[in-house]
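#data-curation
PF: Archiving a pair of folding outputs for the training set. Convention for this channel: one message per protein, sequence first, structure tokens after, nothing in between. First:
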Amino acid sequence: MSKIRDETIKVRQVELKHNQELIQLRKEQRIKDSQIRSLEADKRQKELILRRRQEEVSCRCLQFIYFVIFV
């Protein structure tokens, strides 16, 4: 009986350890996924700002060309 009880306890301990490792891995994955989403959002924001600045520069170049030609 004692042997069966000891084996049962060992099996439960192994399962518990395994479950704890899974919980830790899932937590780490959630953190990494969150970081990825944050970096992607930052990239989109920077691309949007860059696009706006490029449009502004393009517009100013056209204004300058118009000024040089017609004035």
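PF: Second:
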Amino acid sequence: MATTSSTATHGDRRTVQRCAACAGTLDDRDARTSCPACGGLLELDAPLPIARGASLQARFDDRLRAAAPSYVAGRGATADHGAGTGASASARASGVWRFRELILPDATDAEIVSQPEGNTPLLHRPRVAAWAGVADLLLKHDGFNPTASFKDRGMTVALTQARRVGARAVACASTGNTSASLAAYAALAGIPGLVLVPAGNVALGKLSQTLAYGARTLLVRGDFDDCLRLVREGAERLGVYLVNSINPFRIAGQKSVALEILQQLAWDAPDWIVLPAGNLGNTSAVGAALRDALALGLIDRAPRVASVQAAGAAPFAAGFREAFATQRRVRAETLATAIRIGDPASWDRAVQVIRERDGVVIDVTDAEILEAKAAVDASGVGCEPASAASVAGVRRLVREGVIAPDARVVAILTGHVLKDPGLLLDYHRAGNEAPLANPPLEIDATLDALARVLDSVPTSSS
């Protein structure tokens, strides 16, 4: 992946940050993450590449074939593997920066902060498909990213931008996954990291990562929305660079999950993309990627989009039922901590996506989420609770007749099974009669006891 000039691939126009509310613009190296004129959310307005259709498909496919495996990506600063000269090895192996023309075309190889990330699997598991009621169900598992969640896709771009603007420090509010990702990428970039998390409401696995990677971690007496308010005020007054999903560079990086799905399906779009919804950054990013893919002729039709919230944290679902007449806010409460958000920051962006893609928004109960998680886990895949909202949503939408049983559906799994080990162990505790619970059995140290257990174990396909 060679460094190319903006004018050579995109014409004369350069990337700017544009306010979604008032259309005001900022330079692409401006460190502010909201419009100084009206306070609106910013979006990256990058010129689309000159290449179109099959030519652009071939460029991305060539880069995928030429990519160095991630396990050797850190060896050597440059190499030429058919995608040009002078490319950063980590960026060349990244499933995010493979699509750099649609992510952040003006970033140079020297500026890119990459682990690498992306290139996550698209899985078919018959057991999960049967449980959900749709035979052609594919699981896009972003828990295979470096810090085990989809957040790495946006964080590689946000920390690249932090390096570009000379940030003194980076900060975020988080329910856990963002903090782990920030901590890792800040360590990689050599920039101090500061994270604010709600005290007592962060899964142990995620908090452990954040501490291990070295970010300064503050436990705030409040919920996620309190943390986000505080960190936004701090970013404005203290001069740190905010990397929550209100940051347009985060959204730009998260576009890559949809682009990867399309590429993995040989640019033949599925009928549906279904994903968990909390702060709505991923819904916004998927919609932006589909918008670009259609405009550039990478696909000739776009999938519908379904955003799935937890019932105890479902302002977006409530808004959808009211045709988004008002922006709803709730006091969030759900076991799916990654989507325990009551005042989504990317509301307007996500509304645009649902309207453009003939989308739907639903909410599912914690019981439905945990049963879906158990189904995914039992297939040998595994995911964190919030991830399973997508699969629970597919099942609900099939049963309600919204998704046809013969549709091709991609459900995005956003995090790894070990992100929330406490909840996982509680679900499978002895005495729990929940569907698919798998409590451990205590036995005598005898061969007969072992044989009785083996005789009782059913055989099944994954």
